[in-house]
Write a structure and sequence with these properties.
Layout (H helix, E strand, L loop, with lengths): L3 H8 L1 H27 L14 H10 L13 H5 L1 H35 L9 H22 L4 H16 L6 H10 L3 H9 L3 H9 L4 H5 L3 H6 L21 H4 L3 H14 L8 H11 L4 E5 L2 E4 H9 L6 H42 L8 H22 L16 H17 L1 H25 L6 H15 L3 H5 L7 H13 L13 H18 L1 H9 L8 H13 L9 H5 L15 H40 L5 H9 L32 H16 L5 E3 L2 E3 L1 H21 L11 H16 L9 H11 L12 H18 L3 E4 L4 E4 L16 H4 L5 H22 L1 H9 L4 H9 L4 H25 L7 H10 L6 H19 L19 H16 L4 H20 L4 H20 L5 H7 L2 H19 L1
Antiparallel strand pairs: 1-2, 3-4, 5-6
Length: 1075
């Protein structure tokens, strides 16, 4: 016969529990996925919703599981037509249900084996063995419950089998058992309790072992406070003492896990509730803890309703039903406030713990258990709130289920995790020495004191001692990777071997061995599985499946100013969501990844929007203060200073005294909080949140929080700049460029103060925004100030300049208004002053496009009159022929006007380049305008020369005198002086494009023009005589502005005496007019 010890080794209970728990978790997630898919009309298989399949679906639901294919082929005709597609689409669903059936078979077999071995379970002794056993029971129950919640389970199973039989001629071999199983679990609790009847002793014993642990963990905030729970400062002398106890793994065991064990355990094996007072007490304590427990993710059960409904079907449970009602009433009245107080206590306790450990990370070694407890307690309270926030009971205090300060608790939870990961080497160094110099010695002493030690157990325990004793500090210093998974699995094996009845070595007889090994297991996890411990104690991936609750928690935190510095906790929690997946269900990973990223991005964008709003509000306020210091506001101050010695005038009634700039900074009481104080405080809080970490990872995506702020600032700063331009298309009003520049400078200088709060590249931000403003549209597709000012200058200033309502003043380097009877809407000099022109550089590209249009039209006129122009060029020295040819140019006035407009635009561009100096002085026009003319044919040179000659000839009739009222302006009433600029630059561009000698051709032009003007001097006609002097000066201006012509060249073909006399006559004329 097989000895009990040999039986223990052969059964491999530890290995089976480990494998089945992992497998069960995968099967459970698959059932949840199938339920989710089938609950969504857009995701569920199309066969379940098609009109043609309705008869088959109804028939299958009615006759399941016995489907007669031959007698009811009419009802199943839809299945027959699409059998191949159905097989492909429903295979994963069908075999997922097969997985459930196989999992159930293995669980049955293992539970029966455990009962046959008469294993004992005690969470404080054989912790891992008991936990694995209870986890398997709860996982199995949850799988069956999820299966029963899939409404389409019968259709999915039977339709696949029908398609299989139609395709292969026979039914799937697994279908009869699978169909029977699905049918049995139509009423899951009844069937489950029948199944667990034989296991009542083992299940009840395992659950009752919590009678010491669960009540101790289920204390209120007042009791925690009295015990100074989690405080490192309560007993300063013990600060360096290692935190340990006899039941270390139980101290951070999740409350929800224990409640599931108790509620579901006593629901499956309920007989002891009527016979055992300890069972009743533990059960009622769990019932008083809340209304819901979680099966998987957002799938919960209402524990009171489910238990009451089931007990209603049993005889002799009326007292238990009364207990359930009393417990439910207790939960509704008290639980909200109890857990609210717990969260308040934990916020302060964890904050204190974080501050101490951040200052002294060396304490993480001895106090690692405290960190795990703090994380586990916080997670318990968050999960409780999440479960109950989705279904708040009818209570007089619903505010107990709303926590606007949850962000703080989440933040310090994340901070504790960060500290653990950051100082992992500290933890490893401490616990390595603990394992080698204490645990190994204590374990060896315990082994030596044993009366009986079988060979297999002796081998395992000896290997424990040798493995721990071999550890050295140099392994940590050398960065060696540790792996104690084999040791922990051996400890689970040893627990299984020594937990059977009649085992040679019974673990319950050696509690010291259990204590030292449970402690050793915790210490090994601190060496090689810190991430695993953190997942176990602080995983909040359940929030991924409660979107409304998650988003509501975030919005509540946003509304509370004191919580704004902790808002980064919500995006950080999104990094947990990859922990809720399983390799058995890869289909859902993409959806969960997208949901995780969506949550993370949404939260960060909202934080960034709030921060951006505050930043721009501060900038706007600073811009207003800077505006008060602009020179345009100094007139009132100067006037007041001049009249200071005079008798003080009594202010008019109702007149508000204007405050001096800087008054806002003066205050008598620092306690008085200004609006700017509030803004800077809020900015500090929000930036603290964004600056908490440089980056973090969500599903392999690296998230950099400050970049979200830069994106928001880029979008909104562009809008602010456009808004500051204040362009009104209807009235053609726009902000002065100098004022806009002052505003942008004020905003920019304020933005640079952001670097005091946050590590962001403000220079990159400003460059990006301003460079976008040089384009017609920004990155968002919105209009920029380039578009607005281009439109305004073309439609406003330059259009009026082309109509001679505004003239270009070379002396003042600006445009000025002509005196006229009509009231002007703006002063041209204010919109063309040098101080604002460096803003206007981007617009010249658009204006260059306009120049190209004008040039194209001029060229068209040349082509149309090419023959005449050629003759003019050949007969320039024949006055009679020239007069005759001149009359054959019908569009000469149009040419002159267009050339003048080109000159005005080029003059404006020259002002911009002069203002910018060396920065971009020579890059823009040469590139843009020359490109437009490069396509001209070689014969255009002749045409342009003829055109130029024609233009000069037309000047005889069209050019007026210099502006008489403003001698210093040195400009003509009709802007004809801009013609010099047009001729010089247009000719240079044309000849350059054709690779011609510019100087040679301009000399020829000068000779032709001089000859024409000398002939004009012989003409005494009244109109020509009136304009002759101005034309002489125009020729002089052409030579002065040209880099290719000189005064010596001019004097060779045109007497200087005529120029001198022309200047004198024009000056005299202006003196007479002014007089």
């Amino acid at each position: 016969s097989t000895t009990p010890g040999a039986m223990a080794y052969q059964q491999k209970l530890a290995e089976k529990l480990t494998v089945l728990n992992e497998r069960g978790r995968g099967v459970l997630i698959r059932m949840k996925h199938i339920k989710t898919v089938c609950s969504d009309p857009q995701l569920k298989p199309s066969f379940l919703t098609e009109k043609a399949m309705e008869p088959a679906v109804k028939y299958i639901n009615k006759k399941f599981p016995n489907i007669d294919l031959r007698g009811n082929i009419q009802n199943l005709s839809g299945v027959q037509k699409q059998k191949s597609e159905i097989l492909v689409a429903l295979t994963s669903y069908y075999y997922s249900f097969i997985d459930v059936m196989e999992f159930r078979d293995h669980v049955y077999e293992l539970l029966n084996t455990i009962d046959a071995c008469q294993c004992f379970f005690n969470i404080t002794v054989n912790f891992d063995f008991t936990k694995s056993y209870l986890d398997l029971i709860v996982t199995y129950t949850s799988v069956i419950m999820m299966l029963s919640r899939i409404d389409d389970r019968k259709v999915l199973t039977a339709m696949y089998n029908c398609a299989h039989e139609m395709s292969n001629g026979n039914s799937d071999p697994s279908y009869p058992r699978l169909g029977q199983m699905i049918l049995e679990y139509d009423h899951p609790w009844k069937k489950l309790t029948e199944e667990f009847g034989p296991h009542t002793k083992s299940v009840t014993g395992a659950v009752l072992s919590l009678h010491m642990v669960y009540p101790r963990r289920n204390l209120g905030a007042e009791q925690w406070r009295s015990a100074q729970l989690l405080s490192l400062l309560s007993v300063p002398a013990d600060m360096l003492s290692p935190a340990c106890c006899e039941t270390m793994p139980c101290e951070y065991l999740p409350m929800e896990v224990m409640e599931r064990w108790i509620i579901l355990g006593f629901l499956l094996c309920h007989s002891s509730l009527n016979t055992n007072q300890a069972s009743q007490d533990l059960w009622k304590m769990a019932l008083r803890s809340g209304l819901y427990i979680t099966l998987i993710r957002d799938e919960t059960i209402n524990i009171h309703k489910v238990t009451e409904d089931y007990f209603d079907t049993l005889k002799g449970y009326s007292k238990r039903i009364a207990d359930i009602k009393e417990c439910r009433e207790h939960v509704i009245v008290n639980c909200g406030a109890i857990h609210k107080e717990k969260r308040q206590f934990l916020r302060n306790a964890i904050k204190e713990l974080c501050k101490i450990l951040e200052d002294e990370p060396g304490l993480l070694g001895p106090k690692a258990l405290y960190v795990c407890m703090a994380l586990a307690f916080s997670r318990d309270e968050v999960l409780w709130l999440v479960r109950h926030s989705e279904n708040v009971p009818k209570t007089k205090t619903p505010e107990d289920y709303i926590d606007s300060q949850l962000a703080e608790l989440l933040f310090y939870t994340e901070k504790l995790k960060t500290l653990m990961c950051r100082h992992s080497r500290v933890l490893q160094r401490y616990h390595l020495q603990y394992l080698a110099q204490f645990d190994a010695l204590a374990l060896n002493d315990t082994i030596q004191n044993m009366n009986v030690c079988p060979e297999e157990e002796s081998v395992l325990m000896t290997s424990f001692v040798s493995t721990l004793s071999a550890l050295t500090v140099k392994q940590v210093e050398n960065g060696e990777e540790f792996d104690f998974r084999a040791l922990r699995l051996d400890w689970l094996r040893l627990q299984a071997y020594t937990s059977m009845a009649k085992a040679p070595l019974c673990l319950k007889d050696y509690p010291d061995l259990a204590k030292i090994m449970n402690m050793t297991e915790f210490h090994t996890k601190m060496m090689d599985d810190i991430d695993g411990v953190l997942r176990e104690t602080s995983d909040l991936s359940i929030l991924c499946f409660y979107p409304r609750v998650f988003e509501k928690m975030f919005s509540q935190g946003c509304e509370d100013v004191l919580m704004q510095r902790y808002l980064i906790a919500f995006p950080l929690v999104c990094s947990h969501f990859n922990q809720c997946t399983h390799q058995m269900c890869p289909e859902e990973m993409d959806a969960i990844e997208k949901r995780s990223l969506r949550f993370c991005v949404t939260f960060l964008e909202e934080i960034a929007k709030q921060t951006c709003s505050i930043v721009l509000e501060i900038c706007a306020e600073q811009c207003n203060l800077d505006d008060q210091l602009l020179p345009k506001h100094c007139a009132h101050t100067i006037s007041t200073a001049r009249n200071k010695k005079q008798k003080k005038q009594v202010p008019k009634k109702g007149e508000v005294q204007r405050e001096k700039p800087g008054t806002e900074s003066m205050r008598k009481d620092r306690a008085v909080v200004t609006n700017m104080d509030k803004l800077h405080l809020t900015l500090t809080e929000l930036c603290s949140s964004l600056n908490y970490c440089n980056h973090f990872t969500v599903w392999d995506h690296v998230i950099i929080p400050p970049e979200y702020l830069l994106s928001q600032l880029e979008i909104n700063l562009a809008k602010v700049i456009v808004r500051m331009a204040n362009y009104n298309k209807a009235t053609h009003e726009i902000t002065r460029p100098s004022d806009l520049l002052a505003g942008i400078k004020a905003y920019t200088s304020s933005l640079y103060t952001l670097s005091r709060y946050l590590s962001v590249d403000v220079t990159r931000l400003v460059k990006s925004v301003l460079l976008q403003q040089t384009q017609p549209l920004d990155s968002q597709g919105d209009q920029t100030i380039t578009t607005l000012y281009t439109s305004w200058y073309l439609e406003g200033l330059l259009r009026q300049a082309s109509s001679a309502l505004i003239i270009h003043c070379p002396t003042m380097h600006c445009f000025v208004n002509q005196p006229n009877e009509n009231e002007t809407r703006f002063k041209a000099e204010e919109y063309s002053d040098v101080s604002g022109e460096n803003l206007l550089l981007p617009f010249t590209i658009s204006w260059s496009n306009n120049e190209q249009t004008l040039h194209t039209e001029c060229r068209k006129l040349v082509i149309d009159n090419m023959d005449v122009l050629v003759q003019i060029r050949s007969n320039f020295d024949k006055p009679e022929a020239m007069t005759n040819l001149q009359s054959r140019l019908p569009a000469s006035e149009n040419v002159l006007k267009r050339m003048t407009i080109i000159g005005v635009i080029l003059s404006f561009r020259a002002m911009i380049q002069a203002a910018l100096g060396d920065v971009l002085a020579v890059h823009l026009f040469t590139g843009s305008f020359m490109c437009a003319v490069c396509s001209s044919a070689p014969c255009d040179i002749v045409k342009i020369e003829g055109l130029t000659t024609s233009v000069v000839r037309m000047c005889v009739l069209k050019v007026s005198h210099f502006h008489c009222n403003f001698l210093s302006l040195t400009g003509h009433h009709n802007n004809i002086h801009c013609l010099a600029t047009a001729i010089n630059q247009l000719s240079a561009a044309m000849f350059t494009a054709q690779n011609k000698n510019i100087e040679q051709h301009l000399k020829e032009f000068l000779f032709v023009a001089s000859s024409t003007l000398l002939q004009l001097g012989q003409n005494v006609e009244r109109t020509d005589s009136k304009n002759r002097d101005s034309i002489y000066l125009l020729l002089h201006m052409i030579v002065e502005e040209s880099p290719f012509l000189s005064q010596d060249m001019l004097e060779k073909c045109f007497p200087y005496a005529l120029l001198r006399n022309a200047y004198r006559d024009v000056y005299k004329s202006s003196i007479i007019t002014l007089g």
